[in-house]
Amino acid sequence: MNKYKSRWWMEDKPHGAISIELKGLENVYNLQRTNQLRSIKHYGNRFYEAALSGNYVPTSTKSKLKSKNPLVINLIKNICDTMVGKITKASSKIVVLPKKNDPKAEREAKALEKWITGQWKELNVNEEMRDAWRLATITGNGFLIPYFDPSKGDTGELCVEPILPTEIFYPPEASLYGKPQTAYRIKTMDKFQLAAMYPEYEAEILGALGKKESYSNSAVIEEDVVQVRESWRLAGPDLPEGKYALTIDGATLEMDDYPYDYFPWVQLSYLKPPVGVWSMGIAELIRSVQIELNMLMLTVSENQRLMGRPKWFVPVGSHVPAHMFTNRIDIVEYTPTAGGAPTMQVGNPTPPEVYNQIDRLTQIAYQKVGLSIMSATSQKEPGLNSGVAIQSALDVESERFIELSQNFEEAKRQIALRLVDLAKRHYKKEDARILKVVEKDSFEAIAWNDLMTDDDNHMIDMQTSSSLPDTKAGKMQFALDLVQLGVISDPIQLADILEFPGQEKIYESVLGDRKLAKDYILRLTNEDEEYVSPDPLENHEIIYGVIAAYYKSQRFSNLSEEVKGNLRRHLEERLSIIKTMEEEAKQQALALAAAMPQPAPGPAMPGALPTAAPTAQPMPGIIPE
Q1: Residue 189 in contact with residue 225, Cβ under 8 Å?
Q2: CA quadruple 73, 76, 77, 80: dihedral positive or negative?
């Protein structure tokens, strides 16, 4: 019998031990859940009752959250949205690098990279990551979970979706150093849907209690849902096979091994915490400033309402009736004076120091996060009058977000690793499911069974896909730099790059021949493909040089004799084409020289040397014999 009640993974039916464990965690996480829900409420400027569904939050906390007034000037939302756009706007791509230095590993890595790119677009991972990162900026933590849904399609499909941070629980003591071995997720599901998934436990599911506290006015919803608890214990020295359990009150629906050293979700932290796993978000970071700003704005509003309304003083002897005052005059008072014209007085509602304090608090909020008001409001700050000053301010601001960008890029890499791991777990090797990938201007079909390779052959990394300018002025300056460096001289080629700037486009335009040569190497070194002959219309000199360099490298010695023979044959055919082109160029030069009219010889000058017949010069770029 398990004498440690919290070690649920040692039991066959751990629903009781998990229930006891989570009852203890609900008190520990009460304050944190309240802060997370308050942050979500401040961001949206309204109370989200659905956010409390399925979470351990007392009713008293709910009433406190609902009683607060909405924000007059919502700095939290403005700053969070700016931060989301600033971090997620950087275009980056997944790059799969081969660990082995051979053409087959390079070809497999390229195919796997295309597969990840296709899955990324098909699952809308960028949009899902943006939503998860928005939660991370608000509450400090966002979660994105890739999973395999067997109910989709004929054989199941991969899926990616964000989950609320209020659904995740870590044991505090075990996660002190940021690497917990146990985690829980609590979510609310429809009873009938869950019973259809686990028909053998239909009676237990339909008879289970609903949510512990009523957060809705509808009793029907309360009866038709049930709290589902997912529990994970990572593989380690004490439990090499790991454990996963899916439980409800009174039943263990699923219990299986989990031989992995990571949880199924990817956690996006706004800033890595020094202790534990939970980070602080922007809403909590600037909450004190936001509260002070709210109080000042309420004061200004009250002063304007009381003191900002004009008051008319009318002498009784003026004989001016009240109905003569139009345009919604607020206050009219008659003074016991003999006569005279009516006068109006307006008080000073709010001193200027209050408005200065409001501006000062706004600047403090942006400074605490590291943003400039120029980024959040699209307005130039006072004192920044030159382009150099503005760019310097943006550079200083960008340095504050290096860690945030690194956290976001690492999360993208982890999602790619999870997708590949899920596909290898649930897709069979003979599974020939096709994924259509956008490749340049066409679709390319990739079969999964062509990607099932050894894990040690590849590593997944991140790379910025394009750091090129996207404004008109930036594009023109970039074009001038390319021309001055001598990279591009053809006007048509330059216009093509300016129309669709990007690393892939420049690589194709400037280094397309070298890329074609590498493709030839991959095809010639693939023993499963037939021999490929050179195309007469290609740039043979550049392609010949790249393949010849590979022929002389150490990688060539590791190839089979058949592949070596194919490379030699290809080089010989390409060299023959080069010599034929050189000979044709010589003949054309001689024919051109012979067709040119020769001037009639005049009288020889005294002491003049005899002139020699012109010789044909080789064409530029042709290697002379």
Answers
A1: yes
A2: positive
Single-letter code of the amino acid located at 331: I
Of 214, 213, 191, 216, give the one whose Cα is nearest residue 202.
Answer: 191
Q: Return the closest-CA partner of residue 529 out of 539, 538, 519, 517.
A: 519
The rounded average pLDDT for each run of 10 residues, N- to C-terminus, in the chain (625 residues) is 67 90 84 85 68 47 52 83 84 76 72 84 90 93 92 83 90 85 91 91 82 43 79 90 92 92 92 86 90 86 74 71 62 66 70 88 87 61 47 51 84 90 78 58 61 60 52 63 66 58 52 79 81 86 86 79 87 90 87 76 56 48 42
Q: Using the structure block, give the residue that is written with the tokens 């593989």.
A: 235
Distance CA 284, CA 291 (A): 11
CB atoms within 10 A of CB 561: 7
Structure tokens at 308: 């900002």
- Residue 464 β-bridge partners: 92
pLDDT at 350: 79
To the question of pTM greater than 0.85 for the whole model, the response is: no
> Phi and psi of 18, rounded to 5°?
-65, -40
What confidence score (pLDDT) does residue 452 get? 59
Residue that the structure tokens 């201007």 belong to: 441
Contact between 373 and 308 (Cβ < 8 Å): no
At 462, which helix (H) or strand (E)?
Answer: strand 458-464
Contact 397, 375 (CB under 8 A): yes
**Structure confidence at residue 396 (pLDDT):** 44
Q: How far apart are CA 79 and CA 96, in angstroms?
A: 35
CB-based contacts of 537, cutoff 8 Å, min separation 6: none
Helix or strand (DSSP H, E) at 231: strand 225-233
For position 7, what pLDDT does the model report? 86
**What does the alpha-carbon distance between residue 53 and residue 435 come to, in Å, rounded to a whole number?**
37
- Residues paired with 332 in a beta bridge: 312
Strand, helix or coil for residue 504? helix
Q: Cβ distance 142 to 267 under 8 Å? A: yes
Question: Which secondary structure element, helix H or strand E, spans residue 518, and what is its range?
Answer: helix 512-524
